[in-house]
Amino acid sequence: MSVVGLVVARRAGGRSTTIPLAPPACSRHDARRTASLLRAVGRLWMSATPPSMLKSIKQRTLSAANSAGVLSLARGSAWRGRRLLILGYHGVSTDDEHEWDSELYIPPSLLRERFDTLRAGGYRVLPLADAIRQLYDGSLPSRAVSITFDDGAYDFLVRALPILEDFGYPATVYLTTYYSRFQRPVFNTMLRYLLWKARDRALRTSGLTGDSAVLPLATREDREAAFDALARACIAQRMSGSDKDGVLATVAERLDIDYFDLIRRRFLHLMAPDEVARLPRKLVDVQLHTHRHRVPADAAGFEREIADNRREIAAMTGLGAHHTAHFCYPSGVTHPSFPGWLRQLGVTSATTCFPGIASTKSDPLLLPRLIDTMNVSRLEFEGWLSGASAFLPRRPVRASAPI
Ligand SMILES: [Zn+2]
């Protein structure tokens, strides 16, 4: 019997190592052997690799693993069969959002391509609540995946939902409710978008920041500095949501951007309460993401965020407050106190932005998720679906902008 080998060339000195593999066609492969092989690959690369090179090296490693049949082995392994991959998305573009922020937005065509990959690979897309129960009681079907969307943006309704419906895939929407009730653009997100949109212009700050300057917007650093100056001024003046919306309108006017056209298109808005109410219950489950998209570090403040969020969601969906038992940490911010507080509030699962694939050893209140962005290549995506990427070095990915 011939033995297939995965050849891994180490960067340092260009030496190579061959790790022997079971034949890819073997149907009763040894899952433990697959896992140890992938671990060996990950260790090998980690040993000599600066973070800046991780992406290209991971890509080459995955490509070699794919050619050698490792992804296919991992996908069908018992190891993968006991695990759940939770996918996290933020926004699906209605215009050029993905050109502005490729970690927050993907174009609809990419979401469709991802779902094609799920279908072609025989993955079972399960409602998150069912999948988590099945993960811990040992009844998870093989190749299990759950899909989540953070924040509850209007673009979920008009871009993501039609694609979910086409594929018949269920999803959980983690809804942050303040900007659902207050139907104006999400302040931080819209301010960053306006500054990016006007990157060939400059912003006059008189009346906005307490001093009078003309801020350049050409580079990312310029725009972050302008954002900080404007946001700090809003905080210093203890502005209300309406006041901050006035700031957005002024900034847009000075940058020659039609703010009212953005409002008319519900650009960077969240779903309104009546839209949340009309979401198809068979496909979309609305769950907790705090009311104001923040996690206070004190127990009382934290509890208020969950209580307000829960009451609002119950009012919108007509389902009882007990229905909201799943949570996603806003902006992926976690703290050792949070799981205990969530448990006391009747929350049974919480997802993070730590990349990984969930197993029975995962804390249900600190579940890993793959935040899928435009920067995740098709091969990396397949690596995660199969479980193989869990053994490779990884970097944290931002899930959402602070609102
Ligand atoms: Zn969020």
Keywords:
disordered C terminus; disordered N terminus; two-stranded antiparallel ribbon; TIM Barrel; alpha/beta; binds zinc ion; globular; 17 helices; 403 residues
CATH-defined architecture of the largest domain: Alpha-Beta Barrel
- End-to-end gap: 59 Å
Number of helices: 17
Bound molecules: zinc ion
Q: Look at the helices and sheets and give the structural class.
A: alpha/beta
Weakly predicted, low-confidence segments: 1-28, 399-403
Number of strands: 14
CATH fold-level topology of the largest domain: TIM Barrel
Overall structural domain count: 3
Mean pLDDT: 88
* Silhouette: globular
Beta fraction of the residues?
5-15%
* Helicity, as a percent range: 40-55%
Describe this structure in words.
- By secondary structure, this protein is α/β, with parallel strands linked by helices.
- It has 3 domains: 72 residues, no CATH class; 203 residues, Glycoside hydrolase/deacetylase (TIM Barrel, Alpha-Beta Barrel), CATH 3.20.20; 78 residues.
- It contains 17 helices and 14 strands.
- The strands form 5 sheets. Strands 3, 6, 7, 8, 11 and 14 form a 6-stranded parallel sheet that branches. Strands 1-2 form a two-stranded antiparallel ribbon.
- A hairpin with a 6-residue loop joins strand 1 and strand 2.
- Helix 10 packs parallel to helix 12.
- The protein is globular, with a radius of gyration of 23 Å.
- The protein binds zinc ion.
- The site of zinc ion (ZN) has 7 residues, from strand 7.
